[in-house]
Design brief:
With 251 residues, this protein is α+β, with helices and mostly antiparallel strands. The protein folds into two domains: 137 residues, P-loop containing nucleotide triphosphate hydrolases (Rossmann fold); 60 residues. The protein is 39% helix and 17% strand. The protein has a six-stranded antiparallel β-sheet. β1 and β2 form a beta hairpin. The longest helix is centred in the C-terminal third of the chain and has 52 residues. It is elongated.
Length: 251
């Protein structure tokens, strides 16, 4: 699979719809400081599922929306899409038969972000797993920014592991294993909680059974349950039932 095009609309400094074609070979973007080169890299990370506003150099995720200038008004929506060529049909299993795949992320003020794959709304996790299966993603070691080379050279063995996993094309499996471990831990916690509740219910049941046995013994000995008011040898509850249902006396 190959990335073919990135489209930005209302994302940071790109107020209007802008397309960047990724041709065969090496594609470079050259420009002076402040022209938005870093915004293109950040748009790529953003559409891949970046969740940290700090990584986007903002205080909130809505800061990626074009904020306006003296000549252009601000926007309420930001959108980034990336087109992927799957002519070789070696993509993720559910998209293997498609020749073209488009992943799109859209954010509106006060409404949050939405992800789409081929115009079908999906979860953020689905979009992140799509790129993880391609051995890339928002935090992929293959996306190298300023100071990244030095960080990789001095990285700890656990950090270098991510690079090897990506090179071996198993980063998607690693993510799925991590999710499975989280679900198993959550299930184990729920089982422990259920066991605690079961023991509490068993204690309550034992107390109720003991009280029932004592009440039965009391009735056998005194002819009525503890707390019942007896009038003329008849428990009050029976008298109330007879008064409520007069026909009960005839039966």
């Amino acid at each position: 699979m190959e990335f073919k095009k990135i489209q930005l609309n209302g994302f940071k400094s790109f107020a209007e719809k802008t397309n960047f074609l990724i041709e065969h070979g090496l594609t470079g973007i050259v420009g002076p400081n402040g022209c938005g080169k870093s915004n293109i890299v950040e748009s790529l990370r953003w559409v891949m599922g970046e969740t940290s506003a700090k990584s986007m150099r903002g205080s909130g995720m809505e800061d990626v929306i074009f904020n306006g200038t003296s000549n252009k008004s601000s926007k309420n929506i930001a959108e980034v899409s990336i087109s992927v060529d799957n002519a070789s049909h070696d993509g993720p299993m559910q998209y293997k038969d498609l020749d073209h795949i488009e992943v799109r992320r859209k954010i509106e003020k006060d409404k949050g972000s939405k992800f789409y794959i081929n115009d079908k709304e999906v979860r953020a996790r689905d979009a992140q797993m799509f790129f993880a299966d391609l051995s890339t993603g928002a935090h992929s070691p293959s996306m190298i920014s300023q100071g990244r080379i030095g960080a990789l050279v001095t990285a700890k063995p656990t950090d270098r592991r991510a690079i090897l996993e990506e090179a071996a094309n198993i980063s998607g499996l690693h993510v799925r294993r991590h999710e499975a471990e989280l679900r198993l831990n959550a299930a184990e916690t729920n089982l422990k909680r259920a066991d605690e509740l079961r023991r509490q219910q068993e204690k309550q049941l034992a107390n109720l059974q003991k009280q029932a046995e004592e009440a039965t013994k009391y009735k056998v000995k005194h002819g009525h349950y503890p707390g019942e008011v007896v009038w003329n040898g008849v428990p009050r509850l029976t008298i109330l039932a007879m008064a409520t249902f007069p026909n009960a006396q005839k039966k």
